[in-house]
Design brief:
alpha+beta, 5-stranded antiparallel sheet, 4 helices
Length: 162
């Protein structure tokens, strides 16, 4: 029995699968941040209340990590990313604050490539896609459709409008 053709087909299939995984791992990750529109969310957390999208950006593939790490990074970006006391201000955070947005809090949501996580008192909880409204509230300025990132957008460029 000649197993060379079988080994060759198996090796070819493995190489194709490996290349597919490598292409997937090198793609940018889309991060979206939502403010909870319920005034009591800070006390009760996310319980299906409507949200407004306030920030969207793409993380380069070199920084790809677990969802919880990306969510924590977005939380830090929206809370202290514009503060020079915590290092070089991130242009995305500066634009976020300049638009009048508040810090992220309990009940707010961060999405990583369409997977949604609600901020809790300690940590994050995975949730289904929330109901979105495009309402402006004190400390919440929703994104316009043209402010969302496109695949060719450099998320760290100061000239990029997110």
């Amino acid at each position: 029995m000649n197993i060379r053709p079988f080994r060759h087909r198996l090796a070819t299939a493995f190489d194709q699968y490996r290349h597919m995984l490598l292409r997937w791992a090198r793609r940018p990750v889309t991060i979206r941040v939502f403010h909870n529109l319920n005034d009591r969310a800070l006390l009760v957390g996310y319980q299906g209340q409507p949200v407004a999208e306030v920030l969207a950006y793409r993380e380069p593939p070199t920084s790809r990590s677990r969802d919880v790490d990306l969510v924590e990074s977005a939380f830090q970006l929206c809370n202290v990313g514009d503060d020079p006391e915590f290092g070089q201000p991130d242009p995305r955070a500066v634009r976020y604050r300049h638009r009048g947005n508040r810090s992220l809090s309990i009940g707010d949501i961060v999405a990583v490539d369409g997977r949604f996580y609600a901020c809790q008192r300690i940590g994050w909880r995975r949730i289904p896609q929330p109901r979105q409204l495009n309402e402006r509230r004190h400390g919440t300025t929703p994104l316009h459709r043209d402010q969302r990132p496109t695949p060719e957008t450099d998320p760290r460029s100061p000239d990029t409008q997110h």
